[in-house]
């Protein structure tokens, strides 16, 4: 059995299991909450992942739903893990809750399919490039912790069981200079270096491809190692990110990503395009 590492995904799994088991037991949320001596609102917050269920609450709920033995102990142990702190929580003062939730999902990912229209994806950014992006898009004066958190996220690319990342970059990403010429050149060189990683695929969507299905904005599609954890879509904007968990959203965005890849330059052609651009920067 795959061992979950992210407390965020553990909390997501527990919430889903408790809701499913309650429904299977034929109990309404109100009836279950009454039997557990809690308000329906609190039980709803647990099932909606707004709060983490303590192991003692999970054990009581499982007993109510008729789950005992090894199955119950496995879920209680999962609940204990859900109360642990992920590394991203050490950056709680600079990572808003909604993005911390995303990072917790990203940490557990098996694969990420992403499309970026304007900027180099966070997982591919150099420190200088990230610093300049934060300077341009936030009001914070102290951005170094944000840069540190972004660089820490990138470890999923090179860890022992790295995440597979398939990225489509609009050509504008490569043509819009960010920071000084030297900093932007270093960013493109870093991007070119990522082609050497066997788990990373990068394709450039050229302007010549014309209109396409993702012109409304960037997105990420995340799949997890365990089939029990349903894939998600993440959308990011100026003030807030959004996680979409409905299967129809995953199917739609996965289809769009596949179509974008067909419109894009091959990875080999994309690397050549990046190298040509590097050679034009003094």
TrEMBL record:
<dbReference type="Pfam" id="PF13560">
    <property type="entry name" value="HTH_31"/>
</dbReference>
<dbReference type="Pfam" id="PF19054">
    <property type="entry name" value="DUF5753"/>
</dbReference>
<dbReference type="InterPro" id="IPR010982">
    <property type="entry name" value="Lambda_DNA-bd_dom_sf"/>
</dbReference>
<dbReference type="GO" id="GO:0003677">
    <property type="term" value="F:DNA binding"/>
</dbReference>
<protein>
    <submittedName>
        <fullName>Helix-turn-helix domain-containing protein</fullName>
    </submittedName>
</protein>
<dbReference type="InterPro" id="IPR001387">
    <property type="entry name" value="Cro/C1-type_HTH"/>
</dbReference>
<feature type="domain" description="HTH cro/C1-type">
    <location>
        <begin position="18"/>
        <end position="72"/>
    </location>
</feature>
<dbReference type="InterPro" id="IPR043917">
    <property type="entry name" value="DUF5753"/>
</dbReference>
